[in-house]
Every structure is written in C-alpha cells, then in structure tokens.
Amino acid sequence: MNQKTINPEEIALLENQLDNFNPLARKESLLKLHHLAESGSLDLPEQTEIANLHCHTFYSYNGYGYSPSHIAWLGRKLGAKFMGIIDFDVLDGVDEFLDACEMIGMRGTAGIETRVFIPEFSQFEINSPGEPGVAYHMGTGFSSTQVPKSAAPALKDIRQRAEQRNLGIIEKVNDFLTPLRLDYETEIIPLTPAGNVTERHMVEKIAQKSFQVLENPMQFWSEKLNLPLEEINRIVENSIAFNNLLRSRLMKRGGIGYVQPDRTTFPDLDEFHNIILSADAMPCSAWLDGTSAGEQKMESLLDLLISKGVAALNIIPERNWNIADPEVKARKVKELYKIVKLSQALDLPLLVGTEMNAFGQKMMDGFDSPELAPLNDVFMDGADFLYGHTWLARHLKMGYQSDWSNNHFNDRKSKNEFFQTIGKIADPRINPTVFASGITPKLTPDQVIAEFHSYI
Prior knowledge:
Layout: H1 8-17, H2 23-38, E1 48-55, H3 68-78, E2 80-88, H4 94-104, E3 107-117, E4 134-140, H5 152-177, H6 184-188, H7 199-213, H8 217-225, H9 229-236, H10 239-250, H11 269-278, E5 282-287, H12 298-307, E6 312-315, H13 318-321, H14 326-345, E7 350-352, H15 376-396, H16 403-408, H17 412-425, H18 432-435, H19 445-455
Parallel strand pairs: 1-2, 2-3, 5-6, 6-7
Antiparallel strand pairs: 3-4, 4-5
C-alpha cells in the first residue's frame, strides 16, 4: 500500500472516530492510523521541540470535541514532542491518553484541574475572577486514572461538588429562561462520555435548543438578555461569541445562575493536595496573567504553595502576548517575563499549553513568536521534567514524590535536573517490560541515568 492509494476521506473518518464515546472504537481507529503511519502510507512530520501540556479533553470539555486519543494523535500530526491532558475535576482520560501516546511515540503527561479555596489568601482575587480566595489549581504527572483507595472518596467528592453546582445553575437558568427548559439528565449528561458536565456543555445545549424549539429565538434572546434585536442578530452570526455571551449572562459572576462561592464551595487546598500526593503526582500552581491582586503577590503565594507541596507552575502564554491592544500587551508580556524569572528563582519547572477548552483556541503555542522564542528553552525544560517524572512513575514507581526520589534528593533544583535529564533521554517507544528489569530502587540517580544511556 502506498500513500497515493489512501483516500483522504478514509483518514478523516478514522480521525472522527477518535472522538467516538465508545473507547473501543477510539482505540481501533488510533491503531489503524498508527499502522498507516508506520507502513509509510501516511506521512507524519518529524517531532520537534514543541509542547502543549494543557489540553482539556471531552472528559471535561474540549472546544473541538477531542478525546484523549485524539489529543495524542493531534500532537503527532503537528510534529510535537510532548502533549499533556488536563481535565476539570476528573482523571477519567489518563490511562487512555498515556497508552495512546506510547503507541504512537508521543511523550505524554496527564493531570487534573479544579478550583480550591486558599484561606491565607481569602481577601485576594487570585486567578478566578471576582472570587477572592478561590484559585484554579492543578495536579500533574499522574500515571494512572486510578488513585489509591485512601484518596478515592475525596476525588469522588470533587466530582459530586461540581455536579451539585451544575444542578443549582441549571435550576436557576431554567426558571429564568421559561418557556425554554433543559432536562439535566436526558439532555445535558449525554453530551459527555462519562457524565462530567461543565458550564460550556450547558451553554452549548441552551443555544442549540433555543433555535430548535422556539418560534422566534432572536426575539426571545433580545428580551431575556435585554439587548437590541439588531445586536442579537449580529452576535448570533458568530456561535463562539454568542455562547460566550450566554455563559457570561447566565452562569458567570453577575449572571442569573451564578452563586458567589465561599470557603465551603470548593475543596480545601490541602485536601486536593492529599489526592495528588497519594498518587505520586505533583501539585501544580496555575497562573493567569499577573494582573490580579493575588497574582501581584505571586512570590508570597508561591512560597505558601511550595510549603504545601507545589512542585511546578502552569501558564497559558497566549493570554499574555497575543493581544491586540498594545498597552495591555506590553503590560502582560512584562508580567509573563516576571513569572518566568520568579519560577526559575524558586526552582519551579514551567508547564505551558493552550487549554483548548473553547473553540478557536490554538492547537499549539506560538513558540516562534518574538515574545515566546526567548523562553522556549525554559518551556522545554519543564516538558522534559514532567515527562521524565511520568515515565519513571508509570513504569517503575520512582517518580518525583516516590520514596526513592525523596531518599536521594535534598533540594528541588537537583531533583528537577534529574527528572529533566530522564525526560530528555527516555523514549516513549522503550519497551518498559524489557528495560525496567535493569532499574531498581537500589540504584542511585546517576546509575539510573547510566542505565537509560546504555539501553538507548
């Protein structure tokens, strides 16, 4: 079979099947695509030093409907060296994603994101606009969907808290939008593969149903949103803008369904960290753009978070450089460089990505842009670090938080450098069953590195 005999429609069909809610269909499609690439029938670019370590999948919400398998394949098609998934409130996609990455030769990482309450910063807005003390926060470097039994109830509680918030939102929104109403069980949950609903799912269904069942949806939205009919007509032409408008007016701060959170709404920071640490993963701080009162005190915040176990820092660079307003851009680029400098001073590896939890967000950061190019080495060091940890945690139980690691390293810098080195030399195509037999917890870090070099 040669490349000329491949029907592009066949490839498109296989790629579409990567987002099927049936996991067996996804695995079968990825296998076929991989075989086409291995046989030389499908050209893929060489992998280069680019990474997207923050991709939401359809297990929370992906703006393109992508599954974990599709995220892995997307990265390979783009020639990325690293890809990483992060889902809100669940770890459902971890095993699928890491298995998919190993199949196709992608360096993969996986984690979870939620909102937590930080009592010590209760008076400051941090990275969740309008919600003092509340922070988007992450765990990264998970090696399995399953967590230890001791952490399972707390992880389940995070999912249940999210569902209760959703039910409260939809009840308020339904009352406001009457006669338009949605049934959570039958109309919204089926939009997800595993029942983990987000605000974006609800907004998507509200917009869709309004145009299916209402006699005059434009007039309806003009009245409900208190906007001129001409403006509604204009906004509706752009589905992304319209959905964002609905989310803002119906669910975000000041909206009909919004409830101001307090310290009981989200899990406590330490509670979330216990889940992460029990799974030999790493607590990871999430930085927005440096402009809030809390992020203006970033050094104090990171000192606090490091004392509670944070080992890395996540940023979404796009927010701080790809900005039309030159004055706003100048300020935010400055904040971006400040946080990079601070992370290096604190020995916190930087993890970057584009999120992809809304349609229109980039598949990959603009690493060749003048603003990001000087930071590329720092970003790739972070990717190497996270992948090095993930490989050792997944195959040898010798990750960043393991007893072996803690017994051999006394400071973050040397620990980071070791896992970064492993990330540079560990190939996802290494057969762990054969290779792992040569590495045991009796080895020193230098001996582990030597084993990798001798095998490769």
